[in-house]
Every structure is written in structure tokens, then in C-alpha cells.
Fold this protein.
Amino acid sequence: MKIVVLGGVAAGTKIAAKLMREDRSNEVVILNKGENISYAGCGLPYYVGHVIGEKEELIVNTPAKYEGLTGAKVLVRTEATKVDRANKLVTAVDLATGEEKTYGYDKLVIATGASPVNPPIPGMDLENVFFMRTPEDAITLRDLIAQGGIARAVVVGAGYIGLEVAENLKANGVKAFVLDMAKHVLPGFDPECAEYIEGKLSEAGIPVVTGVTVTGIEGKDGKVAKVLTSKKAYKADLVVMSAGIRPNTAFLADTGIEMFKGTILTNEFGQTNDPNIYAAGDCAMVRNAITGKPAWSPMGSTANIAGRIIAQNMMGKEIGYRGVLGTAVCHLPGLDVGRTGLTEAQAKEEGFDPESVIALVDAKAHYMPGAGTLAVKMIADKQTRRLLGVQVMGTGAVDKVVDVAVVGIMMKATLEDLEGLDFAYAPPFSTAIHPFAHVLNVLKNKMAGNLESMTPAEYAAGEAEGYRILDASLKPTIEGAPYIDLPSVTGPIDGVDKDEKVLLVCNKGKRAYLVQNRLKAFGYTNTKVLEGGNLFTDVTVD
């Protein structure tokens, strides 16, 4: 079978390699616009920060090495410009010579990826304006910093790549400001979790300004000098644009291939509306595993999973891609973050009746060196008790908690299905009750009414108005709040009426829950625990 693959990197190279493994008689040719067909796109920020030492490490495979390993033919610097579905022909231009050629196919794969958004603002042509999409971007940026004279940078975009770039600029001694037009950093986190992340970034010396629009870049002697925004101007020696990506699909405009906002629509088998044309990677839509709706997931993981499935389907199998959950994980200074599934807001939009809890738990045995804390938000449906989503922030194996949740959500597991699982335990790795299991127990307690709590979002919305705050920490930590020592709570508390509205606050939430449990036994009827305690929410008493 003659197969043409448009694009390399993750999806294209995965599909071509698997096609050759499935049947060595296949004639597979990759047409790739760039010079590199397989590189570590997600590793680019870490080359800037010298975590990845040598630029050669960014290149996973050269065209020659890839051809030798797989048997697929690779043509670089070759840009597809037209697809003739009726005659099964692709027209492409050799970018080195300008020569135009046609390539016939039995099956076609579109894996042309996406390009950075290049906003139409003044100053984008100035020297020291960077994107972060190719190895050349990262190499040029690191070389510039090494020359000296770069003290301040502005990163436009507070998504995963933007924040990773900011972290690695800081590691290079460059003060980085992050700007984003969205209300909060990182898509896929509920507002209170995003605000927690923003606070930690600020503490780590990376200020983030959200809700701001970049209106232009001013220069001096042809180089970046200042970034203009809807709020104020920021001095800068360089700018990194990380304000999103757009699918590379303009050349398909007149083909009749179905698209949504420039992204190719595919079915569960990776096919477009033309059964002989498949699409994968950053240019293609997949499905959300919970809702079944089309979802854009421009992730290397998605590209590889979908690519492997598509290659097998092209060879006659019928394997459906189960879909994505928006799973993501990110390393930030002093804080790792991860998420999967639906946010609480998304769950409501999709017709679920979500219940959530935020709990701060130990990442591993507290007495072990380097033991950290994880702040976890867990979301489930009240009616079916099905797990819907998890958001994790902290110092520790956040990916482990996220991955457990991924399995549960993909299996449509209820909280009861996930209760009492035999997780791995040893003090260097985990706590005796696994962090995931700990939070699950807290959520079950809340849904059963054993824990009556106030969420950080509710506290921020002013719902603590009228409540008397009692400090239930191990030692007094809230100035102006009466202190309640857990062991001393052996009966009613002097000066606190049993029907009084009381908000119990400790560092993480656990000790306040234990105090609430005792107070209920002594007839108190109107107590609440602040989820996550004052380590998650800054609590003050007037």
C-alpha cells in the first residue's frame, strides 16, 4: 500500500514507523516542511535552562537515522500545498529548489501540526522576540542569554510552555514577568487552584499578571526594550511569545475535509470525512473520554497514542481511540502541578451534579527527608458517585496522583470502586494511606455529611461572613482568632454557643475536622471546616 504522511515530529513519525512494522511491503513517505522530523518539543524550555545540556539531545532522530530504523522514506524541506482527493494526489514544493512535485497515495495521513500564534501587534519584527516551538528557537534563545546583557524578559502566555520557559529563564538569572489575557494561569484548573499556583509562582520570584492584553512591543536600536499592555508597560530585553498555537491546515481549505476552527475533525478511528484520509497530532480533533464531544489535545502523548491506533486501523483493524481527559503535568519552581478530567465548572456545564473537596496531604511519610505536601482537589458526581476530575499541586509525585485518577475516570469508576486499593507503600515513596486514597476518604466523608466544610472558593466569595473563626492548628497561627487545642476539647467550649456559626481553621484542614467531630458529639450544630486550611487560603481576622 502506498501511504503519504504529511508532517513528522510525534504523530507523523509514529504512524509511519508503526505502518512499516505492521507490513514491510508498505511504501511510506513522509513529507516534512522543516529540517527536523523528530525532536523533543516538550523539552525545549529545559534546554534554555541548561537542564538539557547539549542541543543534539533535542533531536530524537535525524531523517537518515529514522529511515534506517523504520524503512519509511523521509523528504525534509518539502511542504504540502494541495490535496487532490479525487485523484489521490498531494502536491508539494521542495523549499530548497522551489520545484513542485506530486505524490500519489492509497491512504493519506495529515500530521502537519500547529504553529505559534503570531499576534498582529506592532514590534513583532524587533530583534529578541522569540517563539518556543522548534529546536532552533530554544538554541537561539540560550545562545543570546549566554552572550550576556539580558536581565529582564517578558513571557506572553501563562500556559504550560510559557510558565516552563519563565522558570528556565529565571534559572539562567533572567527576571521573567509572565503576562496573559486570561483571568488565570493554566487552562484546566478551577480558579481557586489557579490562584494558589499564581501565589506560589510569585513567592518563587516569577510574577504573573493576568487579565492583561499585550498591545505592542517598543524597541531601541532595533531590539526589544518595552512591552506595552492594556494596564502598563514592562521593560524587557527579550520577549517570548507563548500565546497559543494554530493548526497548520490552511492548505486544506478547498478540499472539503471537515474542520472546526481550522482543526481537522476525525472519528474514533482517526479518519476524516474522507475514509482514505486520516489526521493526527496538533492539527486534529479527538474526543473527550467523559463527554464524547470533539476535543483538541495538542499534546505529544495524544499524538503518539492516536498515531499508533491510526496505523493499525489503516492496516485493516478497527481500534477506537478512547479519548482524552485533558491530562497535563508541569514542573514549576518549588511546585509541580497536574490535572485530569473535568473541572468543577466543566462538570456543571456537562450536566453533572459535582461535589468537590480540597485537601492538603503528605506526599510521603512526613519524617522522610524532602517530604512535601500535595494540595488536591477531587471532583465526583453526587448522584452516580463517579470520579470526574482531579487537580494536584505541590512538592511530590503529583503525576502519580493524576495517573491514578486517569485510570479511575477512564474506567468510569465510582468513589467506592476506588476505595481500599492496595497502593504501593514505603516511607520514601508514599504515606501508609496513599495521598489519592486520603483525599478520596475526605471527599466521601463530605458527601456522607461527616465533614461539613467551606471550600476556598466559598471563602473567597464571602461566605464566611457571620462565622466566628476558631484557630484549630497545632499551635496558634491566625492572629486575632481564639485558639482551640484539639486534646483539650473534652466538652463544650467556654464562650462558644452550641448554635453559633463557627468556622474551624487549621494549617491543612485535618485537625480542624477532628475538632469538628468532637464538637458535634458535644451538641454543636453549626460548625464548618475550611478545606485546605490556611496553607491553601490566606485567612485573616478583622
